[in-house]
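Why does residue order matter? Because the sequence determines the fold. Keep that principle in mind as you read this record.
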Amino acid sequence: MGSEKLEKSLGMKTIHQLGFVKLLDVMGDDEEVENSARISYGEGTRKVNQTRNLIRYLMRHKHTSPFEMCEVKFHLKLPIFIMRQLVRHRTANLNEYSGRYSVMSNEFYLPEGDYLAKQSTTNSQGRGEVLEQQGLLQFEFNRIYDGASMAYQVLLEHDLSREVARALLPVANYTECIWKIDLHNFFHFVKLRSDSHAQREIRDYADAMYELVKPNFPLCCEAFEDYIQGATTFSKQEMEVIKDNMSGSWTMSDYNLSERESKEFIEKLKKGDAE
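Structure:
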């Protein structure tokens, strides 16, 4: 397709044999996030070694605009059915390979191993046990792919327009795109698409993208993992259960919380007590 024209890359990971993730460009770093936040305070407020603390404070209290000042840009090769999930993130900028201007590839996603699993009996969107007859299943995939690819070429040879001929290609057909997003919304993308409830194929892409971005924003990613990705929320009723059962001997230091984080945690637990 068009991948050979894009030589510049800050890192690349192969996904599912034929797909890939390339980090093309990064605008900003941890210091840029800090500088964007400190414009609110003016000169004379910065102290040595406060970059990490400030970034963690911003992430913890959902002050998102400093993270929006930084951007990451990717070149992705992925199946169309994964592309459809990617475009759901409407805060990103996107430009996709055109099947109207160009001939589509004859490359298709072929699941294998534990990706070939039964429909889950407890989750209408998930998978269950791994299926045993994998050779037969892959044969059926390839039979459809070969037939669709041949039919597509026949239609083109009969001078049918590319924009119409592509209609018969399966959603497993590979496409490519350039995808750019700010850091705050990238974290939101990773939070959703790396989650265990997301389809496994897009989790593979999200995980690879995050691994490429992380070295460029180590402090931001650390804060994201601690306060967003590895965190959860509780309902009002669940908070009552927690407060009613907080007894025994324990200290905040047992859980690696700073003094400020400890105070904020206690404030969360006390929220609603005056009602």
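Residues 236-270 form one domain.
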